[in-house]
Design brief:
This protein is an alpha+beta fold. It has one domain: Beta-lactamase, CATH 3.40.710.10. The chain is built from five helices and nine strands. The strands form two sheets. Strands 3, 4, 5, 6, 7, 8 and 9 form a seven-stranded antiparallel β-sheet that branches. A two-stranded antiparallel sheet has the order 1-2. The longest helix has 16 residues. It is globular, with a radius of gyration of 17 Å. It starts with a helix and ends with a helix.
Length: about 180
């Protein structure tokens, strides 16, 4: 949220416009957009998302919801293919100056997993060697994990319910690892 406020303060323009101009149009993301507050629909064909409210709560369809409360932290809607294109472009130096990308890739350890967190970018070790760089996200109904390697391989996995336990999220991470190591 702070990053979004900084973008608006420094540019004098709405965050949605700056993200569209500086990222979406620049690298040709055809299925990525920042919906207007109150817009509860996904524009293109998509799977149904589900969410459980409270422990043991009923599973409910939540695909149609207003993501604007997440604003800079998750209001954008995208596809796995566009996420792959984004991370490949970012890591390939098409969005930032080299010094800025180095800053993003300077990480601190996340627990004992071998993963590291930088400025909005996470590195995760791959079972086949090396790392991939990315950042996941979730909103009721959907969770996404994935990223790209330095040699340009990219994979994203999106599930249609936020996993109820960390062990389930680990399975999503394992699927990304398998996709990048195959």
């Amino acid at each position: 949220m702070v990053a979004g406020l900084l973008v608006q303060k420094l540019t004098g323009r709405p965050l949605a416009e700056e993200m569209d101009r500086r990222i979406v149009r620049r690298i040709g993301l055809r299925h990525t957009y920042f919906p207007a507050p109150g817009d509860q629909r996904i524009r293109e064909p998509h799977p149904e998302g589900y969410h459980r409210y409270g422990t043991g709560g009923a599973r409910r369809a939540v695909t149609e919801l207003d993501p604007s409360p997440a604003w800079a932290a998750g209001q954008m809607i995208s596809t796995n293919g566009d996420l792959n294109r984004f991370f490949t472009a970012l890591l390939g130096g098409r969005l930032l100056a080299p010094a800025q990308l180095v800053q993003m890739r300077t990480t601190v350890p996340i627990g004992s997993t071998g993963a590291g967190y930088g400025l909005g970018l996470i590195s995760r070790p791959l079972s086949c060697g090396g790392v991939y760089w990315g950042h996941g996200g979730d909103i009721p109904g959907f969770e996404s994990r994935g990223g790209a390697t330095d040699d340009g391989r990219a994979a994203h996995i999106t599930v249609t319910e936020i996993p109820p336990a960390p062990a389930v999220t680990d399975h999503v991470e394992d699927a990304v690892d398998r996709a990048l190591c195959t």
